[in-house]
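Good morning,

Attaching, inline, the backbone tokens for the sequence recovery test we're adding to the shared suite. The designed sequence is right after.
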């Protein structure tokens, strides 16, 4: 049988602590922000923390990827190059980048992954990135399973897909509205989350169609039921979004996807995890108990239904029932889900606004809030903070152990203790000890002492005691030998671990001889990259040019569809176009609908 295909579960790390928890809860790799240029300005990390994370992850054959995926200005190039050199020497496995100027830098041979900000939607784009030296490619979140399969079939590098977390309404790397409205560039890690704001929809005459709704806010992605189909389509890295999320989120979501994948691997031996160690949890993972705006699997088959969250951009959590009756300082619910003291509950009020409150006391189905909310009979209730669940997660909630087979044997002057781990790494140590026959059988004590792996990353899966006679070996001697063996097997794992290096860059040329602001070219090295690939007309990035009439967002989400007026479904829009979205400060933008490509465009034709 051929070797199984290694599948990577890739989890986010806001910081060192989150990264370690992601590994302990089952991640095969983590991605973490660099000290600068990490596409999440508030999630930067110092080199020393990244070094410590790589040393921890590599024990389990897990990888650490660092995001350097903003566009970079000319005056930042030298500092960025020095930072990348430091990241390489800190042991980082790969960089996640979007600025093609990085590919032109004189760097150590660190592997490069193409960020989702690089906007890969087609096989042609993926092939170009592969030829340019990228060894893993993150494809656009909007792609269906068939599109992912088409791309995977055309390249020889792993395809990485998002499977969980918050969704940008615009194609990543193609959103300029935050820069336009707030001078905060999403391509510089400073997104102001325009898509989560309340907006009013009007027709071309100013007639209000929808007022103060979150028209561009999407639910969160959850493709946990599509994992097997994604693997069969050729996805090799499954990515969880969330570099701004806390450790409890990372623990729960990572553990959930680890369990789902392990269930698949158990019946599909052609697939296997790409790291080492068995995971044991103190809790049952549940995606509904972590931050979410409601869930969507987001176009796996092209369907647009139910992807939006117009009422609120905040976390709803899990539905626990409806309000059955309302008293002066309490109310009852009809759900069967137990509610606990200290839980956070929420509901959508009669004005369509999300309202939250904390539970003070529970008597059966009667809820006594800390402050009585204005709930009404029939209101649907959600729990967005499960106090008991989060308390469990706030403590140590997982351990990860690498299996060892240990053997104790005689040698001419003492004993040899050897080990083979689950990845077939081997180590042995010898120790001197006077050979005296024991008065009683020592086998159980030997096994007990050699099995005490304590805080190490190992567990003893099997043990062989191959002694000529029943020798007496002091417990302290066995303990010292065990500690030396652990150090030796860790050294062997480090020595045998292979580090991926950067692929060769080949300039093969682009079909387009001119670039636009949407190619995000912000520095001289990026210009050089595109010129070497045959472009002779270079347009600078939007952040440098603020092109008039620009497409500020390109979305698969369609407001017209959401309102029930999709022309493909034979529904005529009863309002005069172009439609406009209007901010509460009066600034507005027109909407264009590309029905052939099934996309909605937000256009900068504002005068404010």
């Amino acid at each position: 049988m051929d070797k199984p295909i290694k599948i990577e579960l890739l989890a986010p790390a806001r910081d060192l602590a989150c990264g370690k928890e992601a590994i302990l809860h089952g991640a095969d790799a983590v991605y973490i922000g660099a000290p600068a240029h990490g596409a999440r300005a508030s999630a930067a990390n110092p080199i020393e923390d990244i070094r410590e994370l790589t040393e921890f992850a590599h024990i389990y054959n897990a990888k650490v990827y660092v995001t350097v995926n903003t566009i970079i200005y000319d005056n930042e190039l030298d500092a960025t190059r020095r930072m990348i050199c430091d990241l390489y020497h800190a042991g980082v496995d790969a960089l996640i980048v979007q600025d093609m100027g990085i590919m032109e830098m004189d760097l150590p041979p660190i592997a490069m992954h193409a960020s989702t900000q690089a906007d890969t939607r087609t096989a042609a784009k993926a092939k170009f990135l592969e030829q340019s030296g990228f060894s893993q490619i993150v494809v656009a979140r909007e792609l269906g399973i068939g599109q992912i399969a088409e791309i995977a079939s055309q390249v020889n590098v792993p395809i990485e897909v998002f499977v969980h977390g918050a969704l940008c309404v615009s194609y990543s790397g193609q959103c300029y509205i935050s820069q336009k409205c707030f001078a905060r560039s999403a391509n510089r890690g400073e997104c102001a989350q325009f898509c989560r704001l309340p907006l009013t929809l009007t027709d071309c005459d100013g007639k209000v169609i929808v007022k103060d709704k979150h028209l561009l806010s999407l639910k969160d992605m959850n493709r946990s039921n599509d994992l097997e189909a994604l693997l069969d389509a050729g996805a090799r890295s499954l990515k969880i979004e969330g570099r701004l999320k806390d450790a409890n989120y990372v623990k729960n979501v990572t553990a959930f996807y680890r369990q789902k994948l392990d269930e698949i691997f158990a019946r599909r031996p052609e697939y296997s995890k790409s790291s080492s160690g068995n995971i044991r949890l103190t809790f049952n993972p549940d995606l509904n108990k972590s931050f979410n705006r409601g869930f969507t699997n987001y176009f796996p088959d092209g369907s647009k239904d139910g992807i939006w969250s117009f009422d609120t951009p905040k976390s709803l959590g899990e539905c626990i029932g409806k309000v059955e009756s309302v008293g002066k300082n309490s109310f009852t619910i009809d759900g069967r889900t137990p509610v606990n003291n200290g839980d956070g509950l929420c509901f959508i009020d009669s004005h369509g606004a999300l309202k939250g409150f904390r539970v003070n006391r529970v008597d059966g189905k009667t809820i006594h809030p800390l402050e009585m909310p204005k709930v009404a009979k029939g209101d649907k209730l959600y729990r967005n903070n499960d106090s008991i669940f989060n308390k469990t997660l706030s403590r140590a909630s997982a351990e990860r152990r690498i299996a060892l087979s240990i053997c104790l044997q005689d040698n001419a002057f003492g004993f040899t203790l050897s080990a083979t781990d689950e990845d077939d790494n081997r180590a042995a140590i010898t120790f001197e000890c006077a050979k005296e026959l024991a008065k009683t059988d020592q086998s159980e004590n030997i096994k007990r002492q050699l099995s005490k792996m304590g805080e190490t990353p190992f567990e003893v899966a099997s043990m062989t005691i191959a002694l000529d006679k029943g020798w007496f070996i002091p417990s302290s001697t066995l303990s010292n030998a065990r500690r030396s063996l652990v150090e030796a097997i860790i050294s062997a794992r480090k020595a045998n671990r292979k580090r991926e290096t950067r692929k060769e860059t080949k300039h093969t040329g682009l079909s387009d001889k001119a670039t636009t602001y949407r190619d995000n070219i912000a520095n001289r090295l990026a210009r050089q990259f595109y010129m070497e690939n045959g472009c002779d007309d270079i347009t600078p990035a939007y952040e440098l040019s603020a092109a008039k009439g620009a497409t500020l967002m390109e979305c698969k989400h369609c407001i017209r569809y959401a309102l029930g007026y999709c022309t493909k479904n034979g529904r005529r829009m009863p309002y005069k176009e172009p439609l406009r979205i209007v901010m509460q400060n009066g600034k507005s933008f027109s909407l264009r609908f590309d029905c052939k490509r099934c996309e909605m465009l937000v256009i900068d034709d504002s005068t404010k």
